Amino acid sequence: xxxxxxxxxxxxxxxxxxxxxxxxxxxxxxxxxxxxxxxxxxxxxxxxxxxxxxxxxxxxxxxxxxxxxxxxxxxxxxxxxxxxxxxxxxxxxxxxxxxxxxxxxxxxxxxxxxxxxxxxxxxxxxxxxxxxxxxxxxx
Length: 139
Description:
The structure is a single chain. This protein is mainly β. Helices cover 0% and strands 41% of the residues. The chain contains no helices and 13 strands. The chain has strands at residues 12-13, 19-23, 28-29, 34-37, 44-45, 54-59, 63-64, 74-78, 82-87, 98-101, 106-108, 115-125, 128-132. The protein has a five-stranded mixed beta barrel. It has a five-stranded antiparallel beta sheet with strand order 2-8-6-4-5, with no helix packed on it. The protein has a two-stranded antiparallel sheet with strand order 3-7. The chain is globular, with a radius of gyration of 14 Å. The chain starts with 11 loop residues before the first strand and ends in a 7-residue tail after the last strand.
């Protein structure tokens, strides 16, 4: 899937007090998207790198470091809490399952070439789940 290139509405529950700041890679990170710590550099990125990078959290506000060098700006993420995220093929039986990211916005139930995001706590639709990201952050 293609990564999201626009800000997204954050739909979350129980995430107050979970703000963490990381130095950003030389790229644009969009509000409401997933952010990862790059295994090779340690900078915050929107690329899950086929599962090689670890989840840092959900971007709180857009952070545009695309004209700078890695580390020029810091970006804040929610590192704990439950958030409504999108994907496909979900059903009520998905609740309790581990959920994985395949890009900066899309999730799936399969671990293949994907990064652990957390576990599903609530089913909304075949394309939306509420996911507790606490278990996935830097797992």
